[in-house]
Amino acid sequence: MKLKGKTSEAQIIAKHQEALHRGFRTWPGLAYNRPPAMGDARWTADLILATWVQAEMGRPPDNGLEYRVGGSGGGFDVLTFNFLLREQWVPEQETIDTSISLNRRPYDRKIEIPVPWYGAGMSFGSISEQIMQARAKAARQWGTFTCTGEGGYPESLVPYREHMITQVATGMFGVREETILWAPIIEFKYAQGAKPGLGGHLLGDKATASVTKMRESVPWVSLFSPFPFHSVYSVEDHKKHIDWVKTINPGALVSVKVSTPTDVDMVAVGSYYAGAHIIQIDGGYGGTGAAPEIAKKNIAMPIELAIPKVHRFLVQEGIRDEVVLMASGGIRTADDIAKIIALGADGCVLGTTELVALGCTRCSNCERGRGCPFGLTTTDPQLSQLVDPDWGAERIGRLYASYQMQLRNIVRRLGLQSMRELRGRMDLLNYRGKEGGHHGSRATH
Amino acid sequence: MSDRVLFSIDDAFKQLPPARLPDRSVSGTSTPSSSTFHRYHIETRPTPDIVPFPSRFRVKVKKHGLIGMLLRELIEYKGNFKVALSRPCLYGVFSGPVGGLAPREELCVGCLRCTVQYPHIVQIYPNPERRRLGDSFVKPEYVDTIMYEARDGRVPVRGAGYRGLFGGEGWDGLWTDMSEIVRPTRDGIHGREFISTAVDIGEKPPFLRFDKQGEVVGPVPVMITTQVPFLFDVPAYTNQSKSLLPILSEAARQIESLAVIPIQSVVELSLIGQHLVPLITPDSLSCLDQLSSSPHMLMLDGWDLECYEELKRRFSGTVVCVRVPMDTNLVEMAQQGVRVFHLTANYHGYIGNRFVIDLIQQAHQSLVDAGIREEVTLIGSGGIVLAEHVPKAIICGLDAVALDVALAVALQAHFKGECIDQETVSLSFPRLNMDWGVQRLMNLAASWRDQLLEVMGAMGLREVRRLRGEIGRCMFQKDLEREIFAEHGGNGGGI
């Protein structure tokens, strides 16, 4: 390490940065078995380490780490594919198309992304500016998008504005005319799957001077983004919201992010009629900066159950091909992406998995004190320097590459030519539910 | 028109016994006058454990490796101690007098940064002592959660997403609903709009009957209003009862709820207050004469018509509740006049192999089918050990729940084996201090009430009374899985 000209503080940061990078690189291959305190039922130690491998190598691990499913005992983790016999697979020399369209209506701007995902809204305040930059760089590199979340639009993201989604949520933090004008896609966040019906909450410790300046608030005071929009009581009011942003930026596509109540299918249809191009259904098992544990576990249904419900209803209503359905909230792997598309989504929105690629161990301490000890979900000036945006963008980019490779492999083995063909093909899945046996034909994974 | 108005509505209501609130006068504080608006609130205060609680993690440091690394770094950073001694932990685990040589395990939050950076020197392990907390139903995670709630009185909030299993058995196979856009409440959980958690327990005739003089001639409502939909159930027998029961009693009084206490203990310990619900068996009827005041509610343990009628006769203005197993035929008893039931299952929430979710729904539905649900109050206990179980039990059909094992956990009771029913349970309590115990239970109650507000706020409900039996406000995992996955098949084949 070169020390010349570096202050002690810079040396400390460099020292820890180097040790962390070494750890991310070497941990998955160490002969210590799994780190005994790492992981949980949804994100097992294997999944976390496998994500680190993919972020490092751009391909899934080949040392026995389980990189496809977790240990939750339900949902994605008991869904399996009915792969064809090898001779029926699509040959490797044929290219599998993984792109999706983000506007299926006959009017307005056409936007296609080469991979069936984009980045989830994570606000400045919930994550550091460096992480936002890393995500934006990766989105530009891959021709997809990432989202500001509800915390304003830092200046450093303006060069990436063609790949940034501006989020408008109930607190309206950082929403300005220019942030609407910059955006190719504007996202209205009605609810968040991890805390549905409860609104957002940035704890006082993380409301630093820079964060509150962006949000036009005062430092060290907890910030609530109350639920719901106080100007929306009906689908008609919802349409007025969409009309409002379309008046400012007629070229923008509009996404509506909602949670998964029992009538989520009706909500989706309402959003379609209000004029949304994209409906993002956010399930309860996704990430968050801080949420009551009771909400994460108990309120609203998981995404694996919500997406098929919505997909079927949109089909029945005859509008499925005019709206893009994106799934978020608990999508951890390439297999999860393929499964949620087979369940009826067009694509998905990734959040936590990108943070895991950058070193998150899922310790759930995002909300406390200075925030994340890995410099991810923090705005602490020292901690946030642990992540260099270029390093972060490379990690996310390599994870994307690994996902795309795996998705092509899955689609190929199902005898399909593109991700679009997979949408709604529940017949290609088996679900081994709790009540013994499985629905569908054979478990083959 | 010749008929004269014989009575006014106001006059009619004057005949009714007023709905009663338990006395909430707290020593040293003044009770607000009836003309003063008083928003219900439970006072919380940090109340640390009196028995050390095992730390979440064990931190193992290879001391020789650590010293070697320090020496190497001192050389590498040319003697700059600030850099060489800078350690990865933000939480002070290595901040003791000798740093990493004697890590302070109790501060470790399991972020794993130390072990990610230096896997050859430090390893973090889950503390095996934690796995021994609770029993097969009250899992170690539950104990952890209840302890946090009792210690701080706050809603458990953590970062990152949900970490547990996908749905599951029992309460875990049920998700509560939320309202996306159209909803009556705004910001309820942040206190800008009041959400009521009060419930009425008692006899609620569907209508009043008057004679020609305007006098009420039929049954009148006899009700108690508790400010939270949970009361404290009679604890399993322990040799600590003399210190435990006054704690339950005082905590119930403070939170404006009720405590069910065996009548012998009420008399023996000279417990006083209308928040007390003496539990009576046919054998203990004689103790009624020794009560120093007339209770608002009495609870008859088991069904005995003669005994019930005796109680009704002697305490005409008192709610008489009958405590029976949850699978009892309630309609028959209701036809004999019973209007308040305390339905019980074992501490794991079972009667035989049926879980309380099914049992509550069945009891509720039987009363709905008989057309008398609105007249009856159902209290239930058994298997309700987490805050989330309260709204779920109410959704299934209860008016209120009675808490049992969770209270013992909050008071740091130690499980000696499985805690299944009153007869076989073996719990050992630490030496209980009155103030400490009362505050722990108040903290728990405050946290659970706030979590109930979270759940109701998400639904857009203004009062917990409206949650009762609202099965449309929840989603059952088994139903959704059947609906979504039952029909489709695969295309066969294999890898």
Share of β-strand residues of chain A: 5-15%
Question: Could you say which structural class the secondary elements and strand pairing of chain B correspond to?
Answer: alpha/beta
Note the main sheet of chain A: 8 strands, parallel
Low-confidence stretches of chain B: 1-32, 489-495
Number of structural domains of chain B? 2
Outline of chain B: elongated
Helix content of chain B: 25-40%
Say which CATH homologous superfamily of chain A is assigned. Answer: Aldolase class I
User: Which two protein chains have the largest interface (Cβ within 8 Å of the partner's Cβ), and how many residues from each?
Assistant: A-B, 122 and 88 residues
Output the helix-strand order of chain A: HHEEEEHEEHEEHEHEHEEHHEHEHHHE
Rounded mean pLDDT score of chain A: 91
Fill in the CATH topology of the largest domain in chain B.
TIM Barrel
Helix content of chain A: 25-40%
The count of helical stretches of chain A stands at: 13
CATH architecture of the largest domain in chain B: Alpha-Beta Barrel
| Helix-and-strand structural type of chain A | alpha/beta
Strand order of the largest sheet of chain B: 7-16-15-12-11-10-9-8
Sheet with most strands of chain B: 8 strands, parallel
Topology:
The complex is a heterodimer of chains A (445) and B (495).
Chain A: H1 8-26, H2 45-57, E1 79-81, E2 100-101, E3 112-113, E4 117-119, H3 129-142, E5 146-147, E6 164-168, H4 177-182, E7 185-189, E8 200-202, H5 209-215, E9 223-225, H6 235-248, E10 253-258, H7 264-274, E11 278-282, E12 291-292, H8 293-298, H9 303-316, E13 324-328, H10 334-342, E14 347-350, H11 352-357, H12 389-413, H13 419-422, E15 429-431
Chain B: H1 9-14, E1 57-61, H2 63-76, H3 81-84, H4 113-117, E2 122-126, H5 128-131, H6 140-152, E3 157-158, E4 174-176, E5 199-203, E6 222-226, E7 230-232, H7 241-254, E8 259-262, H8 263-268, E9 276-280, E10 297-301, H9 305-314, E11 319-325, H10 330-335, E12 340-344, E13 350-351, E14 354-355, H11 356-369, E15 377-381, H12 389-396, E16 400-403, H13 405-410, E17 414-415, E18 427-428, H14 434-459, E19 474-476, H15 477-485
Parallel strand pairs in B: 7-16, 8-9, 9-10, 10-11, 11-12, 12-15, 15-16
Antiparallel strand pairs in B: 1-2, 4-19, 5-6, 13-14, 17-18
Helix pairs in contact in B: 6-14, 7-14
